[in-house]
Amino acid sequence: MEFVQNFPFFSIILAMFSGVLCAVLKPKAARNLVLSVITVIGGMSFAVLGYTLKAGEYYVYWMGHFPAPFGNEIRIGVLEALMASAFCVVILLSLLGGMKHIFHDVEDTKVNHYFLMISLLFSSMLALIYTNDLFTAYVFVEINTLASCAIVMLRKAKETLVATTRYLIMSLLGSGLFLIGICILYDITGHLLMSNIKESVAVLASTGEYAFPLEIIICLFSIGLAIKSALYPFHSWLPDAHGTSTSASSAILSGLVLKAYIILLIKIFYRVIGIDVVYASKAVNVLFVMGLLAMLMGSLKSLKEKDLKRMIAYSSVAQIGYIYMGIGIGSEVGMIAACFHILAHAVTKPMLFCSAGGFMEVSGGSKKFVDLKGAARRNMLAGIAFVIGSLSMIGIPLTAGFVSKMYFATASIGMPEKVIPTLVVLSISTVLNALYYVPAIIVLFSKTDNNNKIVAVPDKKDIAFIISMVGFIILNFVLGICSDPFLTMIRQGLEMFG
Q: What is the pLDDT of residues 152-171, one digit of tens each?
């Protein structure tokens, strides 16, 4: 075994133990530790990506070098390494972009606890990407849930308690359905390792035995993780959770946490149930319809919002719909488009949330559009980043969002029964996206009224914020202009899944 093959395991453990250390460190020391650990893990993730691309195949790693059930098993291919690398970059830039707000919005005595939860959250997301064991996936789903709730609740605001409670209840409902699916699957197959389950499911599917329980299992997994990823109509918790938390928390929750659950669902479809069995079950048709509804309803909700962060949060509901629509198309191209949109949304939505934080900073902390008039003039970098992020969400050429929408449209052409609904809803959603992002840009760049809350100009020496915004802008254009290498890696990764 080459040493680089140990890096995924090291990444999970390093992130977890850095959180433990944060509990006893001072706030700034905890911050420096977490940023350093994320940077190191990012380097290891890129090394693993390079290794899997060169090898051209996945490999299996036994934690402790003991085979299951004594050692936990993780499985690493191109797609896992790509997503882990992307997650490292995005969480680092999100923390940098919202660092000032973390120290402002979180009580001094709890800042180290915030970074503790960020470390646990990061560790759990990496584990969800890499794990090859269903029960281990459930354990880290719960760790992910608790850590996510904590980073929302740690902000100094009364409304965060209500938002956290709603988030926790809905998340636990999703986790419960996911666990029931695992229990039924274990009962009929006798396995928890994904590869072993897939072999058993293939036999059952070929004989027609347990056909109805398999349908129920697919539904439980799909609904459970749809709830946790805020797919319409299970989205009610998201606007409050994302709208009331710090800018960094909103960025991480929207850009990464929601995507981790979708990645897990894709893994289950390919590596547990088998994608052919999933397509035969027609469950993808339900996800397709729900995705289309999310694209429309999320955008319509955004149109009505007078709160910038809540508008961006509802926009996330629509963008999650895009991903599920891609999965629901039921083809390889549709799945590739869905995976690419995971990356596109991950580098765009955190930029929008961090930009919103920059606007609030120069507008008395208000999130209301009426108070944000001219905010982009006072924080020009945030304004530029918001414009580029908005254009990406609309789907303007040269941005990451354009590539996603183009591939969604291309994927639908190969499915005659789905091409018209896909193209129609894509068109309507694009128009709706423009109808709430363009007016927001106009307000933000308008001349300031005397009634607007102007309390400060942005700190030109805020290097962390500058690095974050510039980094997100570059990533967005890289995905928009140089998409082919990423699409190729996604295609290779999905082939390894199968």
A: 887 766 677 777 788 888 88
Structure confidence by residue, pLDDT tens digits, 120-136? 999 999 999 998 888 88
Considering only residues 210 and 453, tell me which one the structure prediction assigns the higher pLDDT. Answer: 210
CA distances from 372 to 353, 381, 448 (A): 14, 15, 9
DSSP for 372-410 reads -TTHHHHSHHHHHHHHHHHHHHHT-TTSHHHHHHHHHHH
Alpha carbons within 13 angstroms on the beta-carbon side of residue 452 total 25
Structure tokens at 216: 């129920």
Rounded CA separation 216/194 (Å): 18
Answer yes or no: are the C-beta atoms of 103 and 60 closer than 8 Å.
Answer: no
Give me the mean pLDDT over the 399-406 stretch.
91
HSE, CB side, 13 Å, CA atoms: give it for residue 191: 16
In contact, 481 and 413? CB cutoff 8 Å:
no
| Residue 166 to residue 459: CA distance in whole angstroms | 35
Question: Cα(242)–Cα(155) distance, rounded to whole angstroms?
Answer: 12
pTM of the model: 0.91
- Run of H or E including 164: helix 159-189
Cβ contact 129:82 at 8 Å: no
**Which helix (H) or strand (E) element contains residue 418?**
helix 416-445
Residue with token string 């709730």 = 149
- CA dihedral sign, ordered 226, 228, 233, 238: negative
**Continuous H helices in 25-98:** 27-55, 78-97
Give the HSE-up count for residue 241: Cα atoms under 13 Å, Cβ half-sphere.
Answer: 30
Radius of gyration of the chain (CA): 22
- Closest CA relative to residue 84, chosen from 316, 277, 256, 327: 256
Query: pLDDT for 38-75, tens place per residue?
Result: 999 999 999 999 999 998 888 887 765 555 555 578 88
pLDDT 10s digits, 107-118: 888 888 889 999
pLDDT digits (tens, 9 = 90+) for 230-280: 898 888 878 877 777 788 888 888 888 889 999 999 999 998 888 888 888
CB distance 61 to 74 below 8 Å: yes
User: What are the residue ranges spanned by the domains of the chain?
Assistant: 282-498
Cβ proximity of 246 and 361 under 8 Å = no
CA 436, 307, 322: angle at the middle one, nearest 5? Answer: 45
Q: At what angle do helices 380-394 and 400-413 cross, to 10 degrees?
A: 10
List, in order, residues 6 or more apart from 283 with CB less than 8 Å away: 215, 218, 219, 222
Q: Is the peptide bond prior to 439 cis by the omega test (within 30 degrees of 0)?
A: no
- Which residues, including other chains, have CB under 8 Å from residue 118's CB and lie 6 or more apart? 19, 34, 91, 95, 147, 151, 252
The residues facing 73 across adjacent strands are: 62
Q: Are 231 and 170 in contact (CB under 8 A)?
A: no
